[in-house]
C-alpha cells in the first residue's frame, strides 16, 4: 500500500525539479543569446578593419622591389583578425622571402575579403594576368563552404589553377573542426589536390597543419569573431607554407645571388 501523504511531496519535488530545469534552461538560453550578441559585436568590429587592411596592402603594393610576390585569396590573405595586416600569413611569408634572399620584395596582395573561388576568378585573375610574379600563393575556398556547391567550386578551382605559373603554391582549405563542415572541406580538398596534380602545382598542407593544432586552437589561435585567425593562428598558417616556400626560393633565386 502507498502512503497518501507521499503523493503531495512527490508532486512538490517533481514541480521543484521542473522549475529548476526550466530555470537552468532559461539561463542557458540567455547566456547563448549574450554570446551570439558578443560574437556579432566582435565581427562588426573586425568588419571595420576590412577597408583599413585593403588600403594597407594597396599602399604597399606601390613599393618597388627586386622580386615580386603575388597573393590570391580572401580575408585571411588580407590578414583580418591579426593585430596588423602584415602579421597575417602573407606578411609573414613576405618577410621570409626578404630574409632568405636578402633582396627587396614588392608584394601585390590581390585578395578580397569575403571572396569565394568564383569571385576570385571574376575579380582577381584579370589583375593577376598582367603580372609576372616570382612567387605566388593561393589560399581560397573557405567562404565556399557556407553555400557549398561542389560543381561550382571545382569549376572555379580549375579556372584559377589554369591561370597560375607552375611555381605557384596552392593551399588546401584549413581545418574547420566541426564535423558537418569538415565533410564539405574533405570534398573541397580532394578537388584542390586533384586539379593541382593535373597542372603540376604544389599543394600546401594547410588543412593538416591547422588540424594538428586541435580544438584548443579555437581558444588560442582564433580572433574575437571566432572565425578568422589571430596573430598566433596566422603563424600556424605561415608554418604550412614555409617549407615549400623555402624550396621555391632556392629554385627561383640563384644561389650565387643569395651570397652576393
What does this structure look like?
The chain is an alpha/beta fold and 260 residues long. 58% of the residues lie in helices and 9% in strands. It is built from twelve helices and five strands. Strands 2-1-3-4-5 form a five-stranded parallel β-sheet, sandwiched between helices.
Topology, element by element:
Elements: H1 6-47, H2 50-60, E1 67-73, H3 75-78, H4 89-101, E2 105-109, H5 117-123, H6 125-128, E3 135-139, H7 150-162, E4 169-171, H8 179-199, E5 202-204, H9 206-211, H10 217-220, H11 231-252, H12 255-258
Parallel strand pairs: 1-2, 1-3, 3-4, 4-5
Helix pairs in contact: 4-11, 5-7, 7-8
Number of helices: 12
Shape: elongated
Low-confidence residue ranges: 26-32, 34-42
Mean pLDDT: 87
Spatial strand order of the main sheet: 2-1-3-4-5
Helix/strand-derived class?
A: alpha/beta
User: How far is the first residue's CA from the last residue's CA?
Assistant: 101 Å
Q: What is the helical fraction, as a range of percent? A: 55-70%
Radius of gyration: 24 Å
Most strands sheet: 5 strands, parallel
Total number of β-strand segments?
5
Question: What order do the helices and strands follow?
Answer: HHEHHEHHEHEHEHHHH
Strand content: 5-15%
Amino acid at each position: 500500500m502507498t502512503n497518501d501523504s507521499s503523493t503531495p511531496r512527490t508532486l512538490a519535488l517533481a514541480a521543484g525539479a521542473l522549475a529548476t530545469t526550466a530555470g537552468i534552461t532559461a539561463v542557458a538560453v540567455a547566456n547563448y543569446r549574450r554570446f551570439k550578441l558578443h560574437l556579432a559585436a566582435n565581427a562588426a568590429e573586425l568588419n571595420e578593419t576590412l577597408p583599413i587592411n585593403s588600403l594597407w596592402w594597396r599602399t604597399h603594393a606601390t613599393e618597388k622591389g627586386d622580386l615580386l610576390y603575388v597573393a590570391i585569396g580572401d580575408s585571411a590573405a588580407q590578414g583580418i583578425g591579426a593585430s596588423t595586416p602584415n602579421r597575417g600569413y602573407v606578411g609573414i611569408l613576405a618577410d621570409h622571402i626578404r630574409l632568405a634572399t636578402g633582396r627587396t620584395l614588392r608584394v601585390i596582395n590581390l585578395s578580397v575579403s569575403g571572396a569565394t573561388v568564383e569571385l576570385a576568378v571574376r575579380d582577381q585573375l584579370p589583375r593577376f594576368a598582367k603580372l609576372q610574379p616570382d612567387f605566388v600563393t593561393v589560399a581560397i575556398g573557405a567562404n565556399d563552404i557556407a553555400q557549398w556547391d561542389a560543381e561550382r567550386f571545382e569549376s572555379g578551382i580549375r579556372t584559377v589553377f589554369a591561370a597560375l605559373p607552375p611555381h605557384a603554391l596552392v593551399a588546401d582549405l584549413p581545418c574547420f573542426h566541426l564535423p558537418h563542415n569538415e565533410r564539405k572541406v574533405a570534398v573541397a580538398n580532394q578537388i584542390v589536390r586533384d586539379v593541382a596534380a593535373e597542372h603540376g602545382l604544389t599543394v600546401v598542407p594547410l588543412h593538416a597543419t591547422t588540424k594538428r593544432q586541435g580544438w584548443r586552437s579555437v581558444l588560442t589561435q582564433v580572433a574575437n569573431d571566432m572565425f578568422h585567425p589571430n596573430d598566433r593562428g596566422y603563424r600556424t598558417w605561415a608554418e604550412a607554407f614555409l617549407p615549400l616556400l623555402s624550396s621555391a626560393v632556392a629554385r627561383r633565386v640563384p644561389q650565387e645571388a643569395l651570397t652576393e
